[in-house]
Amino acid sequence: MGMMGEDQVQNRDKRLKVFKEDYMDWEEEEEFEEDMEEIDGEMGICKNTNSPFYYDQVRCCASFVVSDALEPDFPIIYVNTVFEDSTGYRADEVLGRNCRFLQFRDRQAQRRHPLVDPMVVSEIHRCLNEGTEFQGELINFRKDGTPLVNHLRLMPISEDGIVTHIIGIQIFSEANIDLDCSSYPVFKQSSSNKPAPFNFNSPTSELYTDNSQHICPILQLSDEVLAHNILSRLTPRDVASIGSVCTRMRELTKNEHLRKMVCENAWGQDVTGKFELSTRRLGWGRIARELTTLEAATWKKFPVGGRVEPSRCNFSACAVGNRLVLFGGEGIDMEPMDDTFVLDLDSADLEWRRVKVASSPPGRWGHTLTSLNGSWLAVFGGCGREGLLNDVFVLDLDAPRLAWREVAGGGPPSPRSWHSSCAVDGSTLVVSGGCTDSGILLSDTFALDLAEERPRWREIASSWVPPPRLGHTLSVYGKTKILMFGGLAKSGGSLRLRSCDAYTMDLEEEEPQWRQLGAAGLTTAGPPPRLDHVAVSLPCGRMIIFGGSIAGLHSPSQIFLLDPYEEKPTWRILNVPGQPPKFAWGHSTCVVGGTRVLVLGGQTGEEWILNELHELCLASSPDGDM
Ligand SMILES: Cc1cc2nc3c(=O)[nH]c(=O)nc-3n(C[C@H](O)[C@H](O)[C@H](O)COP(=O)(O)O)c2cc1C
Asked: Is the beta carbon of 235 within 6 A of some atom in ligand 1?
């Protein structure tokens, strides 16, 4: 950029802004391309002796692309006709997409083609993150699958110090590769593919050598095979550990592309998708580290506008994507409420909005609200005007017309309140325990697959069940596993005590069984017994517990962490700076993307105040995330 005059930059930026607003029409295109060529000529692409590009080619057959750098994932806003001819993709097929589709040979492929050098991709990623120029060579594919060598140059365009657009210039040439015969990898071996220079100071480096100092076979693999076939299958924590083994492993594990794959494998694409914005600033390594060590966890407090009226307690709240939904509750004189409020976390001003929803479920409190299938919410049970309920209502928040729909679901659990629920595998609502009209505590567990055409309740008949309870939590980890914690549990005779026991069940087993975590209970000092607390499952399968009703002087905001995958799970205390809420109740807490825990309703005496919320942020969020 150094050789372009300021006026030219401004002119070009103005033109690019026009693109953004109403994509260019084809007459303007030619003029624009001429401008661009002029500017590029003056920028001296060919004069740069380090450049792998040659000016004649840029002039006559360079394809180019413009991307919007202010939108997530650099969507394409313009391609020229050379791009269309060279790649076989029409402009209307690619506008709005990120240019990485050229790295996929088959449109159905889940991963980029192995011939695409991951090191080059991660270098592109780094340059885009840092707003610097990139020049390099990588394999791309035409729409018909033909491999091409792409001599790619990416140039950031800035306005007031902010990168607003990226211009990509591609010179495509034939790739003389026979895809049927080529063995992977075919791109040039990086210098570090040679047996790595060992850092013998590293305490573990001997693991990789035998007694006669021969290199362990694993280190004779190329960088690409090590990265793609081995390291990408490890957990973020293992990748961090292996990175400390020797210099070469450190270099390999620093690769952003690899780190992204590792996070995707460990947490799934739903979760990693939510980090795309943060990782532009922080990088995948940092996000993985923060969620593993929880070193960035902080409490924050936010004011919220709007009103949830009439005032109430014992409502139930839940996060659906970036929206918080509150349903029902107990109003003055034990009035059961049936209204729905939404708080949009993406809006600049946080504000409760009462939404009109057709065919509302009967008013209630002590019910559960569960988020399923991305945009659905399910209400189950609770205490209504006529007594306890066992009905299920579902609301699709993305539907054009909002309406609660009752799900008939034969053979339901008995009516109850203060039970617990969770969503397993996206669409199965699981309900356990709670309290009957006559005050009897329950210990049963039921599941209802709402993706079925005619959902039917199914009792999960475990041969052993935890003592009956209410006010406990059910959280999901590893997709199909449930962890039950705490609650007010029956403890022999008519005695009921707060519990601090944890139980797990894997619904994928043929005959799922409840098991106590840690055969004789968890040995280390864990969370004090409690009910109506908050339980959050983290993307990596660990759990945190806080809040609820606790006896004595214990602090409800003290956070406890548990990894149910450990051979002998132990509780750890997590010290989190910031301003924690005074109270945190499970039914008034929403978990967004597994990394943000929003606690609604500070309480003063009898009243619940919904005009502030506390957030436990588990990873650094991009500025203005809230
Ligand atoms: C303007 C622009 C043009 C790009 N052109 C190409 C291209 O021609 N071929 C390619 O493989 N990647 C291209 N990229 C890079 C990819 O879009 C993407 O940024 C890269 O794969 C790294 O990101 P990822 O690791 O998230 O995939 C381009 C990026 C930008 C911003």
From this structure: no
The minimum-distance atom of ligand 1 relative to the CA of 69 is: 31
Atom of ligand 1 nearest to the CA of 66: 1
Ordered by where they begin, the domains of the chain are 63-174 (3.30.450.20), 220-293 (1.20.1280), 298-617 (2.120.10.80)
pLDDT at residue 227, as a whole number: 85
Q: Which ligand 1 atom lies nearest to the CA of residue 76?
A: 1
Atom of ligand 1 nearest to the CA of 140: 11
The finding on whether 103 has its CB within 6 A of some atom of ligand 1 is yes
Tell me if residue 597 falls in helix, strand or coil: strand
pTM: 0.63
* Minimum CA distance residue for ligand 1 atom 2: 168
Reported as a pLDDT band with limits 50, 70 and 90, residue 233 is: confident
b (16+ CB within 10 A) / e for 220-256: eebbbbbbbeebbebbbbebbebbebbebbeebbebb
Q: Is 152 in the pocket of ligand 1 (CB under 6 A)?
A: yes
Pocket flag, ligand 1, residue 125 (CB < 6 Å): yes
Is the Cβ–Cβ distance between 187 and 136 less than 8 Å?
no
36's CB contacts (< 8 A; 6+ apart) are 12, 64, 167
Q: What is the pLDDT of residue 383?
A: 97
pLDDT band per the 50, 70, 90 thresholds, residue 60: low
Specify the amino acid at residue 19.
F
Q: Is the dihedral of CA 233, 235, 240, 241 positive or negative?
A: negative
